[in-house]
Amino acid sequence: MDLTVRRAGALEYLTAPALAGSIHCFSTRFGGVSEGALASLNLGTHRGDRPENVLANYRLLGRAVGFRPEQTVFTKQEHTAIVRVTAAADCGTGLLREAQDVCDGRITDEPGVALCCFSADCTPVLLFDPVRQAAGAVHAGWRGTAKGIVKAAVEAMQDAYGCRPENICAAIGPCIGLCCFEVGPEVARAMREALGPEAEPALRQCGEKYHVDLKLLNRIWLARAGVRRVDVSSACTMCSPERFWSHRVTGGVRGSLAAVIMLKGGEEP
Known about the structure:
Blueprint (H helix, E strand, L loop, with lengths): L3 E5 L2 E5 L7 E5 L23 H15 L6 E3 L8 E3 L19 E4 L5 E6 L3 E7 L4 E7 L1 H6 L1 H13 L7 E4 L9 E2 L1 H11 L7 E4 L2 E4 L1 H12 L3 E4 L14 H4 L6 E6 L7
Helix pairs in contact: 3-5
């Protein structure tokens, strides 16, 4: 199923039916206070934006979605397959104080902890177990996809919280699509080495280059992990740079999208 568009004034964000029962969103570019090349909803703290603008953007998004800025915990992304268990003591990491430990995924079973991962063409994935009440946020670039980080996150939820994979629901947010993600043969080779013949439907050869479907590849990893329900955004960030941040379109002069998920039951915003 595709994601649902939500609006609150100028603000726009996406939610997933599969994640019903959690507080969550996938952001767009719309509805913030950032200016110039970062206009308007930049949620990255290392994009050259003024800190007060980024904080204001989190207040705006959080007010609409249901979290407070100080409840957020950021990933410190370096295209790894590292997933970290996260607790209330970690709240504020990334936004209010610098994140120290590298990870491209975070999981929690504590209410009131708003897990955040970031993208601007890479694939954001949110996970929610409504039975065990646990959640995860994962950044899957092509390297993380080849390493199977979403499968690692599901397994981390099993190990840390006793989740059953068939109870975990997932949502894959906006990212660069098969239509636009043109890469060299080394990327296709990495996917084949990771997934074998299962990778082939996600690879389309175009001369010496390949077009790669990151959404499908992450769905394959989720299926391997035992996840049965997955909602997938139909949006391509490169096709819609006016709506989503795209690293390729902007040449890196851009803001960041955020995918956020929080378990209900913590202190209300």
